[in-house]
Sequence to fold (189 residues):
Amino acid sequence: MTTTSDIAPTTESGIDPKRFRDLMARVCAPVTIVTTTDDEGPHGATASSFAALSQDPPLITVAFDRRSALLARIVAAGRFGVNLLHHGQEDLAMRFASRGTGGERFAGTPWHTDTGLPRLDDAAGWVTCELYDTVEGGDHLLLIGLVAKACNVERPPLVYANRTFGTHSRFTERPRRPIIDHITACTPD
Fold:
């Protein structure tokens, strides 16, 4: 049997990078396309590190590899948009995850500008952000965005887990019981 201690540490923390990636692959994450624009036109990339941070003020986070060309453009622009994808947009997520320029990624993709940022026409949700802060985190930079505009459409979300796309589904409905019944069932005689 192989245990964590049997593997030679290859990072500062002593954790094997592959083992860590495999663990994090099991975490279900939303699939988004983060966008910005500059003199060269629209730019965007797929990101699954999107999360809410605060309601007051409304803040979100998204992380990018420090080598990301989009990251440099967002920091320079000081603003960005987040398109939340819906189930059925896997091809779009893959297109924006591939290498290429902004123009190549947007070619054939219906989009328009919203508050000066590229917004995908068919996205399930849209958030416009001012760059509020950045936080260094190893090989990534965490962007904190102050939400200036948010809207959504009721569609099943596109999520990513176990290195594949999917969507959320409800557990089978079970009859509800008062919490006291659960507590009583767990109390020893």
Observations:
- The domain at 28-169 is CATH 2.30.110.10 (Pnp Oxidase; Chain A).
- The helical segments are 17-25, 69-77, 90-97, 102-106, 179-186.
